[in-house]
């Protein structure tokens, strides 16, 4: 198959991990006889430096013409420490999600057996945990009206959802539940927020079309607790943009590290595949970032955008083999990991390629 992929590496460790992701794509093309062509595009701080704009028009044009996008990360400490900055790297990511209509962000939480010990949660509560989050990605407080009032001492971000936005993400989540363990948990704050009461109402309506799916509703605070207490109780979780952002960083500790969580941002057109982690200023340039979230994002791209199930399985299997051989990046190593098995970004990438 011929596929055209736009690589948007972005900032910080985005550059380092995306290099490995692309190498894996090349290896898959070679092994399975596909032809992948690539283009690169700018976003975030890198784009601001080059053009003054975190999301140049050219990036949107190239992305729209692609079969899929491999995304790294955006962010720079310069903006994190300057709340008054008007132009910010994160606007690039939010902008591309909106421009491409990527309203569903799938975040699988899958614990590789070998990483049971890497998690901060006790192994006996974890084994077999397998959750698929559907995070709504183009609505909520992220995109509601925002601003400052009066003398600048009052600020607001409007939390807003429309029926169609909730319905389309709910349908995707229920469809996925039907292919899994047929359990769906919808997370909101309907005891307080009106937008959450609409969310719950719509999810209840959609549920009527899926009588086989066992549905529960949890408040965000309780869901955050249950995720740590008993992660195995969850199958598919559907939630809004902000709650989904926070819950999935929390859930990364089930999988062992932020460096293990991939995601697929999809809608009605092309798909964008992104690790859930950011540009990680604290480790940028040190060559120690875990590239497996990017490699797992490639696996999601192969399966979801290209329908290449065997190829996706080959990638996940290669990671499994590397972990079984004992190799770890620093974030998933522990006190018992022999020093010679703790690898940097590039060396971990080489191990994965060797198993492919
Ligand atoms: N999707 C994105 O592009 C995205 C996501 C989150 C944060 N950000 C941005 O990234 C910048 C840094 O944010 P942050 O530090 O809060 O979050 P972060 O996700 O960048 O890092 C959080 C922690 O996880 C570690 N970590 C993250 N990815 C890792 C990997 N692959 N391997 C090993 N360790 C890893 C980091 O070293 C850090 O200690 C900010 O500017 C933020 O806005 C971007
Ligand atoms: C960088 C930021 C805009 C982004 C988000 O909040 O969606 C990030 O945290 C993520 O999870 O992809
Ligand atoms: Mg996040």
TrEMBL record:
GO terms, biological process: L-leucine biosynthetic process
Pfam families cross-referenced by the UniProt entry: Iso_dh
Signal sequence interval, chain numbering: none
Binding site for Mg(2+): 221, 245, 249
SUPFAM superfamilies the UniProt entry points to: Isocitrate/Isopropylmalate dehydrogenase-like
UniProt cross-references to PROSITE patterns, sorted A to Z: IDH_IMDH (PS00470)
Subcellular location: Cytoplasm
Coiled-coil positions: none
Binding site for substrate: 97, 107, 135, 221
Pathway named in the protein's UniProt entry: Amino-acid biosynthesis; L-leucine biosynthesis; L-leucine from 3-methyl-2-oxobutanoate: step 3/4
A cellular component annotation (GO) from this entry: cytosol
InterPro entries: IsoCit/isopropylmalate_DH_CS, IsoPropMal-DH-like_dom, Isopropylmalate_DH
Catalytic activity: (2R,3S)-3-isopropylmalate + NAD(+) = 4-methyl-2-oxopentanoate + CO2 + NADH
GO molecular function, one term: magnesium ion binding
Positions bearing the site annotation: Important for catalysis: 142, 189
Documented EC number(s): 1.1.1.85
SMART domains assigned: Iso_dh
Cofactor(s) the protein requires to work: Mn(2+); Mg(2+)
Location of the Isopropylmalate dehydrogenase-like domain: 4-352
HAMAP family linked: LeuB_type1 (MF_01033)
Assembly, per entry: Homodimer.
Family indicated by similarity: Belongs to the isocitrate and isopropylmalate dehydrogenases family. LeuB type 1 subfamily.
Purpose: Catalyzes the oxidation of 3-carboxy-2-hydroxy-4-methylpentanoate (3-isopropylmalate) to 3-carboxy-4-methyl-2-oxopentanoate. The product decarboxylates to 4-methyl-2 oxopentanoate.
Name the UniProt record assigns to this protein: 3-isopropylmalate dehydrogenase
